[in-house]
Amino acid sequence: MIKKIALLFVIIMLLSFSSFNNFRKLLIEKLEDYTNYYPEKIYVQTDKPYYATGEDIWYTAYLVNGIDHKRSDKSRVIYVELINENDSIVSKKQLYTNDISVPGDFKIRKEWTPGNYMLRAYTNYMRNKDTDYFFQKQIPILNLVVNDSLNDIVVSLDKNKKPLLEKELIEKPEINFYPESGYLINGLISKVALKVKDKQNRHIIVKGTIKDSDGTTICPFETFEFGLGYVTMIPEANKSYYASVIINNQEIKYPLPKALPQGYHLSIVNNGHQIILKATANVDLGLKNSFLVAHQRGKLFFEKLETENKNTYSIKLNTNNLQNGVVNFTLFDNNGKPVCERLVYINNPANNININVSKNKTVYKTRDKVSIQIDLVDKNGNQALGNLSMSVSDLDAVGQNSKSENIKTYLLLNSDLRGNIENPGYFFEKENDIKRHYLLDLVMLTHGWRRFTWNTILYNTAAEKAHFKPETGIYISGRTIALKGTKQSFSAATRLTFMGSDLYQDKKQSNANGAFKYGPFVFNDSIPILIEARVKDFKSDDNKKNRFVNILLDDDFNNSPKVSRNTLLRPNVNDKQKIINFIKQSQSITKIESEFEESARVLDEVIITAQRKSEREKRNTLLNERTSYGFPSNRIDLNDYPNSESLTIFDLLAMIPGVLAYNGSISIRNGGTPRIFLDGIPVEIGDISYMNSGQIEFIDVLKGADAFFFSNSGNGVIAIYSRTGAGIRNINVKRKPGIIDFKALGFYTAREFYAPDHLNGFDEAIKQDIRTTLHWEPKIKLTRDTSKSEVSFFTSDTRSNYAIKIEGITDTGIPVYHLTTLEVD
């Protein structure tokens, strides 16, 4: 009997060990999948926190691997949108980058309604998660046509107040409690974080006491900046607890979460260079078969299985090999259920990178040349490499607060924690500041890890499959549908043609669902494209039914995700005087621009002595601008034939010397069938047979040597140009089945920031220069060849102090931020 019991015990132990090994293998495998198929993050630096109607928003978008913050190897396409208060996208840019950053800009139209707009940035791959994972930043836009008082405009933006003191309260505040690692457990000592705020989400500084259900005082508490504080307590069985706060001579009670009779607890002390962790349990098995894991942004760096039946253990972990940012500790019980979670912020001095800024002067005059040298240096004084962007703005009009969000606070805090963290720059203003270190740990206690939940990552495998793929270029996609009958999707032959100086064609067979996809392509601006489809192939056009195909294009660019403002970075706009100064300066700039444009219209009389071109020469010059081959052998201009709308394309061709056109065929005398082009795109006779003179602007015929510009043109060329306007292809004529044309929107190329040259500029010499953004440098790249970079610009006519704000990221994935000033006297 004893042997049977022993054998049964061994079997249970083996099964338990096997079960744990399976769970451990699953957890590590899922974390590895998470890091291999890493999420992407985007951060966008703008030149200033708020704008006026009619201004430009200058920005640089940084796209990184969400694990190590290095350049992402997945996406190359970034979408940046400007969204108004009604959640309508008023402007959208499609940017391409093969680097870590790319510049862009928005033009704020004067007729837009002022208000709190949102700048949103994401990749297609990021759409696999909720839109809360997108970069989203509030952009206040002010109206310069002021009907109400300036103060009313400022009040509408004045959302961030200073923390309220207890004596200033006129209503009951809200207190939230956050037990360390999740729960209060009877008999286990626990730290409980508190966060106090009012209905306006303002932080409250209060004092109070924790009492039990008998009214006995357990301990006092006090909150500080951000309404944060904490207490340490040991809950007892059969007792409840509440926080007591006296407001307006009245006691207000706030119940604490009810303690569990049994459970687990994680206690962590972060000493900077070292983490001291204590795990405790009061369940029957104690900590036996519990599994502790620690990861940083999904990358596992510590694991521990407890094999003994003990109620507590302690661990010391050195943090020298960790990157800066949030670390997650999770304790799983013997059933693989996560029972405790604790976040810790790592600030490793070895990771610190400094931005050095050297100016050629200490004080500048108006219209003075500024030269700034910028480099990156690590803690040992070695040069670091990376990408930066820089804005220089007027401090009297534009508030640049070091407590605001920046690339460092976003990548290391906001993007990984649940909820918003207001004034996150506060925690990084001073190195080795004990108070800020203390408050940052309370932030860890009051915010959870938001990148994934364990149940989702471990068991919901289907949810992890990426429906939206990373984009490395522009895709042209759509479906082929039967023109008649059931009008269902079916597989058809398709052909794509790019119009342009370099002809490009490609053919694909759409799949059984009629879907086809061309790309990826990389091009800027817009390119006219022709897509054709045939039931069988392009060799069977003698059969009219071969064209019985409808082509439906996908519109991915305008298919934007839903708008949500749950994770919105809000700028500091609580300085009324600065905003008033900004509006007044913007009004002055608008007035100067208007007066300058008006004066430019008044020109001195200019006497031109040149031979006047004839109307015919002007007309031919205009038409030649639409062609790529210069002069034709023969041309017919439909402007010379008014009231000729009844003439068909064949009637028009027959009017051209040397061209034979009848019975649906075309030939050039002494030759075979010529090549036919419509607005530069090769087409077939059937594609133009529907056209008449009302749809055509002119027709060129090229013969002999003139035709050699085109390949395979031994029989000559007939080039037809529709009435679309010179240099523009936007054909709206009725097409035959099986053919569509459109303009494909290319990647946006950022405009260059206008920087006046006060040494060599002509207009600048006679025009007053007032700017709230003195300079914007969207991309400063520090490489091994250019470890230092020099940026030059001119001061304006405004005597003021200017904020130089530099943000960026190193090639090793360390975000950097620097704020300094420049004085103009």
From TrEMBL:
TonB-dependent receptor plug domain span: 639-716
Listed SUPFAM superfamilies: Porins (SSF56935)
Record-linked Pfam families: Plug
InterPro entries: Plug_dom, Plug_dom_sf
Record protein name field: Plug domain-containing protein
Species: Flavivirga amylovorans
